[in-house]
Amino acid sequence: MESAIPKHLQCPRSRQPRKSAEYDPPYPAWTARLPEKLTQITMACLGVQCPKGKESAALVRVGALVHQLALKDPAAFHDIAHYTDEAGFPTWMVMAYWPSVEAFQRWQAQPDVANWWNAPARASEGLGHFREVFTPHVTHFETLFSNDRFEGAAHMAAARSDEIREHGYWGGMRDRLPSSQTNAMGSPANAHISELPSPAKGRIKLMGHDNIALIRSGQEWSETTSKEREQYLKDIEPTLRVGMEFLRDKGQSIGCYFNRFVQLVDLQGKPLEKSYGMSLWHTLEHMENWSESHITHVNIFGKFMQMVGALGGPNLKLRLYHEVSVLQASEQSYEYVNCHPHTGLLKTVPPAAKL
Questions:
Q1: How crowded is residue 255: how many other Cβ atoms within 10 Å of its Cβ?
Q2: From residue 241, how far is each of 29, 168, 236, 249, 261 by CA, in Å?
Q3: Exposed (0-12), middle (13-18) or buried (19+): which is 72, by Cβ within 10 Å?
Q4: Is 353's pLDDT higher than 70?
Q5: Distance between CA atoms of 24 and 345, rounded to whole angstroms?
Q6: Exactly one of 192, 322, 340, 342 is catalytic; which is it?
Q7: 3: confidence class by pLDDT, cuts 50, 70, 90
Q8: pLDDT on residue 228
Q9: Global confidence as pTM
Q10: Does residue 67 have an active-site annotation?
Q11: Share of residues in the chain with pLDDT > 90 (%)
């Protein structure tokens, strides 16, 4: 058993964890060990949105985005997901990862990428596009896995940890963040979403505030069988969907800026037996409050624990993971091109600014 915080990021604590070093988790879990030389990562969410009836054109555009990711300074990893958003628009989302900010900046600056993204046609061709970029420092980033199969940023990992101590209790997410040793990561004064000047019609650029929290939390059920598969599909997944739709539709009332519940797909659009929720929160505390006390998440957690009790935690084939970042304002950028006004952070922008 070891700490989720890697040794090279451990320091004398001024803030104590929720559990002591003697705590014994109820089931095993692991974290990804990123290379020590890696200090800051980039996660870029590349979205394609379309009205119903233009799905084929949108999927072709997704293929073009994936092709771009393989150009000079390619993404270290990417996956593709699909969902229908709160306004009923079919949307595809390519989530791509780089091991540094500089590599991503070089990638997006090359002509084949920059000229396409900045072309006036993006605002008039009938598709919506968005680019949401997050560049957390590893001190403000953590991962958790129920198994040995990595997802997301963990594909850049050097190794998997031994079993870790900081999980299986409320507050474990915060305790896994190296920054939590000394930093409360609370809400800054006058925290709000800012609109940035954009010279092009149909484009809106936004910037977040300090200590925004981002989570990607996923599940894979491709290897489940018999009772476990039935319990996931008929009991857990519907309960999970209720929670995800609450955050999507009413999350702003509890500090969730947006939430997307997506299913992974292949390049032809065929669904895979993987899904994840991606949500952006005012602070980590707002996310914690929902997970600890809101009925929608309490129900999700309760259903999962029923499965663990009935089928035995170590024997489960359901694979779970998440990655969490706490971001400063300078570590976020959001650009929306020809998107409807409820897309992502656009819902926080006053209506007059969207015209």
A1: 17
A2: 24, 22, 9, 12, 8
A3: exposed
A4: no
A5: 40
A6: 322
A7: very high
A8: 92
A9: 0.94
A10: no
A11: 85
